[in-house]
Write a structure and sequence with these properties.
The chain contains 6 helices and 16 strands. With 238 residues, the protein is an alpha/beta fold. The longest helix is centred in the middle third of the chain and has 11 residues, at 89-99. 19% of the residues lie in helices and 30% in strands. It has helices at 36-40, 60-68, 81-84, 89-99, 128-135, 148-155, and strands at residues 3-12, 19-23, 44-48, 75-78, 102-104, 107-111, 114-119, 140-145, 162-165, 174-175, 178-179, 181-182, 186-187, 194-196, 201-203, 222-231. The strands form 4 sheets. A 6-stranded mixed beta sheet has the order 1-16-2-3-4-5. A 6-stranded mixed beta sheet has the order 6-7-8-9-15-14, with helices on one face. The protein has a two-stranded antiparallel ribbon with strand order 10-11.
Amino acid sequence: MKRKLTEYTFRTDKITAPLRLAVAPDIHSSPFEDVLEEFARCDAVLLPGDLVDRHRRNNDHAERFLRIVPGIVPVFYSVGNHERKFRRREELFQLIRESGVTLLDNRSTAFGGIRIGGLSSAKGTPDTAFLDRFEQEEGYRLLLCHHPEDWRDWVDGRDIDLTLCGHAHGGQIQILGHGLYAPGQGLFPKLTDGLYGEGKMLLSRGMTNGAKPRIPRICNPCELIILTLEKKERKEEP
């Protein structure tokens, strides 16, 4: 499967050293070996949900990911709808923890001079108490949030520096830069890929389609995002 490599750079005065981060939502238990070298060039891999696919008979690729990738680079993983609905969810979560991956299930952790949080996919209202706490964390606040609709409804406008989302699969079919369909948004979705909210939400097209895509991808390649955070120097007062 050919994936597009998309790079974004954000500059902030809240960090002291640069970070290079791979953003890889929606792997859906598909092969990932083609991006291992790119992962190895990063400081961390961020998974905003759906490493597994609840529709597959087995999730061998996801389990292999958990065995291999944490030995190459630190991995931070938040809960998507496929994890939330997974039949053996607690067994999966135990496997994630044993792998050395940091599971961010409505919690946050410090890494590389920033704060990384994970808002878990929820049926209905997400954990807004976690968001309230996360807003108060010191430093650069980077949130993994699988659903762009959750960002729109619950995160947009909060004091969170950047939110990383997936789930929309780029709108499946893109016509003149507009997506046709996205889960959770229906036909002609407004949130499909790229930057939104004056650059405070970055939405990936996703790493793959999943076991049961409703619509094939057309003019809409899968992608791996490389996110670089660089230090922005403060201007001295005259």
